Amino acid sequence: MSAPTLTEEARDVTTDEQLFALSDSAAMLVAETVATPCFAYRLDLARERFLSLRSALPERVRLAYAVKSNPGAPLLAELASLGAWFDCASAGEVVAVGTARDEVGWEGGPGGAVPGRMVFAGPAKSESDLRAALAAGARIQVDGIEDVQRLASWHHGGEPLAVNVRVHPLEGVSETASIIGGSGPSAFGVDEEDLPEFVAACAAFPQVRLSGLQVFSASNELDAGRLLANHATALGIGQRLQELLGRDLDLIDLGGGLGIPYAVGSPELDILTLGAGLAELLEANPWFTGNIVLEPGRWVSGPTGVYLTRVVRVKESRGATFAILQGGINHLLRPLMTGQSFPVHAVPDRSLPEPTDDDGEPGPVGERTTYSLAGPLCTSLDRVGTADLGPLRPGDLLVFGQAGAYGFTQAMTNFLSHPVPEQLWLGGTVAAGAP
Description:
With 435 residues, the protein is α/β, with parallel strands linked by helices. The chain folds into two domains: 8-41 and 303-426, Lyase, Ornithine Decarboxylase, Chain A, domain 1, CATH 2.40.37.10; 44-301, TIM Barrel (Alpha-Beta Barrel). The protein is 28% helix and 21% strand. The strands form two sheets. Strands 1, 11, 12, 13, 14, 15, 16 and 17 form an eight-stranded mixed β-sheet that branches. Strand 8, helix 9 and strand 9 form a beta-alpha-beta unit. Helix 4 crosses helix 5. The longest helix has 22 residues, at 224-245. The protein is elongated. It starts with 7 loop residues before the first helix and ends in a 9-residue tail after the last strand.
């Protein structure tokens, strides 16, 4: 199905501090074009955000889009057309990026197999994962000696295979909400205190060369100062690693963590402050002359998308009011996992008669109710948050904002075999309207 064409007026976002990628009129147009529930994404906004972030950062910083946040093919093609790096965590993501690069005729050639434009990470890499990353020329972030052993047995190039080591900091890192895990016990990487032993063990595998570092210690962080403090810790670890190796590092991956707000009044991440702070950190660490990688995922993709679903019924139950929706955690799982709701507001169905009171006069429109938003699944876990909304009735359209990241592909789509929601891609220069 072709995507609807949005007028400039429909694109304008004037509600709730830019939390919604589409205006109410645009959201209604989408909902009248395809069956709800559905997702809609603005590729022009993804492009704008990627370019604005890149321009705010020092020249030595490379942006590797975190595919996990939204692996939609049109989005990957749009970013590939901008020469983006990519952060992949599975063979499937590597293949998706290669396909996107082929589609836009990226200079890297078939599969995008040019070293330096992809990083590959994950705590439990399979053989197929590692072989796909090798074939794509990715810089692999090893999590332990097991990764090094396997890569050494598979790499047959004339030069040693350059890899990064992921290090889990002992201290000096923090995140507002514990998603990555701070400096506590972790399944990720080599613990910082074990780094000397790890470097020594790698000497037995000369086919693999430790050439870089990854430190990823926060998720959805809105405080540029907190991110910069974590990055300063990472650079300190990098300096110690370089001293242990006795040679220069060429790449330090600082991970992602660039956050977006999910509520009215929440601050935006100040990317200009982040960029200026990174420039100061690079100047303060002249020992490092290589490149920095950041892995923005949510920051690029989240604000580009909305999720649209209709109210099926409204129920009062023992002091609580439920709005029961067409879709739930089978489409938006993140609220259940993190306890944080997506922003949401209602767009009344214009095809329904206006509500009236007992005398036939227009009913109240200003009174708001706290609704528990429930989905269609046969489990009491199927909740996608709570929201203070005006009076709802069956057929009303709810618009969930910031749904371009960790939405469609993170959800329990196959549970109970409900229909898979449509995804519409709007306004791209490469693949607008692609299915």
